[in-house]
């Protein structure tokens, strides 16, 4: 065939192969753009995103209606909105990964972009971006609720969440999304990873508390080994050097190591 | 061009693809033929980097698939038309491919036109698509980047006869313009009507490969004469044997030119002399895969 390529007839047979342009590699930002699009372009994806704003509004309304007047402060709104965010945002991260396997779209995705780490990196970028924007939107909805609520009840307007405190809460939610990501790459199945998230975030902390109640040495070590417990300081807005160290140590075991294992599995696993 | 060399993929003790070597050449349609579970899909997944090989190499356009900077622009791939998010519209699925490859938006409409999906159909969610429509959408996704190589796994599945005819013409034209087409099928007839080269696989091993003409030739020759006894005597005298074929013809393993010479020397007039195509290849396929059939084995 190499001989054929030099004959004039071959040139007539396949002119295309001699004039093929050299293609530029796909930039990461384009992959991220595609991943962002994929988060919104199905009904389930769209409503998951919409539910972030809807639930933030519902939580705000609930605070105005049910909270006692003296507790009508921005912190109350932030706490009320924080709970649905802490559940929804990790779902966004989980589904962006597991959908490639559960919906089998990975067959196309990883064929068009064969370097899977780039697809995963794009998903992390987009998920974290969506998480931060969602938190800002939720924060704004809470602020409107605070202004409206105090105006309705005639109480004083109290802004008792500082910018630093708010960024800690955003960080905590980003960590929650990374946990979702970790479970996504580790389990690679939507229902499995979602169940995994609830076990990880609600069942394990309860068990940890029970253990701490009865075992003295565990109680002493809990802030260093219980990732969820170590994140508590973020929500209290007081991060000492020790609190950061505890977050880092617990996070290494509960997030970084399993995430590395999961990424290794994603790189090597078969996509069927 | 696709070059597969000594490719092996094992799953524990099970060898799905066993030392497979073949080539799909530019300007030709290569048919990848084998019964279900023979290793066709695994081989194709290895080609595009979705399954890591245990050993051996697969090169597309002279490079490893993962080394292609923008693979969709060089290799069109359709592995499973049903592997799509059921909640996306057909148009959206094409738009995702278009955006990933960095193509102009107009390519989406062009491709819908090429595969004859109407605007209304393109706006429907894929969960409401028939298998045939999914195949058309999958072929559109494979073609959108104007690649020089096509890798299609069972693309005719679910297409109606007119659809199969359409696809055959499409792939023929594509190969005639210099493209490389590799398509798999477990149906001999599909491969026979479109392929220039055929690779037959059974239980993970290549059991036959060559041009369609070569494989047809190896399936024997059909010869007919008004004086059949004289022809049989002449063939036997030349050390050849024949077995009865339909309507008093003979089927022999010798090639047509040998038989023609023998008949001429014996002075026997032939009324027909041709390769035992169709039925011959089918016989060969069944024979080659007889001990690799999965009848009675849970898939």
Quick overview of this protein structure:
The complex is a heterodimer of chains A (272) and B (299). Chain A is mainly alpha-helical and 272 residues long. Chain A has one domain (25-267).
What is the average per-residue confidence, as pLDDT of chain A, rounded to a whole number? 88
Number of continuous helical runs of chain A = 13
- Quickly give the structural class of chain A: mainly alpha
CATH architecture of the largest domain in chain B: 3-Layer(aba) Sandwich
List low-pLDDT spans of chain A.
Answer: 1-18
The largest pleated sheet of chain A is described as: none
Low-confidence stretches of chain B: none
Indicate the radius of gyration of chain B in whole angstroms: 23 Å
Instruction: For the largest sheet of chain B, list the strands in their spatial order.
Output: 6-7-8-3-9-10
Q: Per DSSP, what share of the residues of chain B sits in E-state strands of 2 or more residues? A: 25-35%
Stated plainly, the CATH topology of the largest domain in chain B is called: Rossmann fold
Mean pLDDT of chain B: 89
The CATH superfamily of the largest domain in chain B is identified as P-loop containing nucleotide triphosphate hydrolases
Report the order of strands and helices of chain A: HHHHHHHHHHHHH
The sequence of SSEs of chain B as H and E is EEEHEEEHHHHEHEHEEHEHEEHEH
Largest sheet of chain B: 6 strands, mixed
Oligomer: heterodimer
Tell me the number of helical segments of chain B per DSSP (H or I, 4 or more residues long).
11
Q: Cα distance, first to last residue of chain A?
A: 34 Å
CATH class of the largest domain in chain B: Alpha Beta
